[in-house]
Write a structure and sequence with these properties.
single chain, 285 residues, Rossmann fold, five-stranded parallel sheet, binds adenosine-5'-triphosphate, binds magnesium ion, MT-severing_AAA_ATPase, AAA family ATPase
């Protein structure tokens, strides 16, 4: 039974530079430092903060990378660090979900009570924590959500030297159970709209490998990115496609690259469509 994904070995990937997310990175970073500072116990009460973070936005915008970068940095700066990531395969034996969530939280509590700085990363939280009230959700999902909520509340009631930080990512904020949403204090939208300079920073290392001769008008790319609401990952995929063309000896010029971008379907807009059709099913929102 593999409810939990393997712990990610971030050291392998190292830090991956994100473009257009400086504000988001600074906010999340500052929040984690605040949670683990000595101001937390007093100020969090006054401000009603919980040590929970939710990053939301379309696919391929850097949410997972942002958390992984942060976790790698925290890990590097502290020997008292404990990180766990949770990848739930919801369609597998749902009866086990609650049990697995409980044992994960037990582990977190144990680590926190030893004075460790616990960081839990939950990617694509919606698969687990989608609305409890959707008619098509099985009772296993509902139980899973309830267990998660009660475990989280229990964890946050206790006091530790360093409160555990729970950070999650989702594509579908509206899809999430409102009781779940409420329990994430810091909600950060990750949906960068890249300008020409940022686009250049993102794709020129790739262009350099593909072809030294290719010169690209980044202003033009910027307007295509805005027109088609392309995400950073959409741009990366287009560049990969041209790299592969080059690999098999097919020649192309700037016009082809721009045409490639023009005809690329945005993963952000397909995500929007899904979200809309989902919302119409979801009476809660
Ligand atoms: N803002 C960005 N700057 C640079 N690279 C980015 C950015 N956003 C995404 N990428 C790249 O795109 C790929 C996917 O990013 P990531 O997995 O972090 O996206 P995500 O938002 O978690 O997507 P999903 O919602 O599908 O899980 C990674 O290789 C990442 O480096
Ligand atoms: Mg992700």
């Amino acid at each position: 039974m593999h409810l939990f994904g393997e712990k990610k070995i971030i050291a392998d990937h190292g830090h991956q530079e994100l473009i257009g997310l400086e504000q988001q990175e600074r906010l999340v970073d500052a929040f984690c430092k605040f949670v683990w500072s000595d101001k937390w116990s007093e100020q969090s009460k006054a401000l009603h903060f919980m040590p929970t973070i939710l990053l939301y936005g379309p696919p391929g915008t850097g949410k997972t990378t942002l958390l992984s970068n942060l976790a790698a940095e925290l890990e590097a700066n502290s020997s008292k660090y404990y990180r766990e990531s949770l990848d739930l395969l919801v369609n597998k034996d749902l009866g086990e979900t609650s049990k697995a969530i409980k044992s994960l939280f037990d582990e977190l509590k144990e680590q926190a009570s030893c004075g460790k700085k616990v960081f839990l990363q939950i990617d694509d939280v919606d698969s687990l924590l989608s609305s409890r009230y959707l008619s098509n959700e099985s009772s296993g999902v509902r139980r899973g959500v309830n267990t998660f909520l009660s475990q989280l509340d229990e964890l946050l009631l206790e006091s530790y030297d360093f409160m555990p930080i729970i950070a999650a990512t989702t594509n579908m904020l509206s899809h999430l159970d409102s009781a779940v949403k409420r329990r994430f204090s810091l909600k950060v939208e990750v949906n960068p709209v890249l300008n020409a300079k940022e686009i250049e920073a993102l794709i020129s290392p790739m262009l350099d490998i593909i072809s030294k001769e290719l010169t690209i008008d980044f202003q033009e790319v910027e307007s295509l990115v805005h027109e088609n609401t392309l995400t950073p990952n959409d741009l990366i995929l287009v560049m990969q496609r041209f790299f592969l063309q080059d690999l098999i000896g097919n020649r192309f010029c700037e016009k082809d690259v721009l045409e490639g971008l023009r005809s690329t379907e945005s993963s952000s807009s397909t995500f929007e469509q899904q979200r809309k059709s989902f919302s119409s099913l979801n009476k809660e929102d």
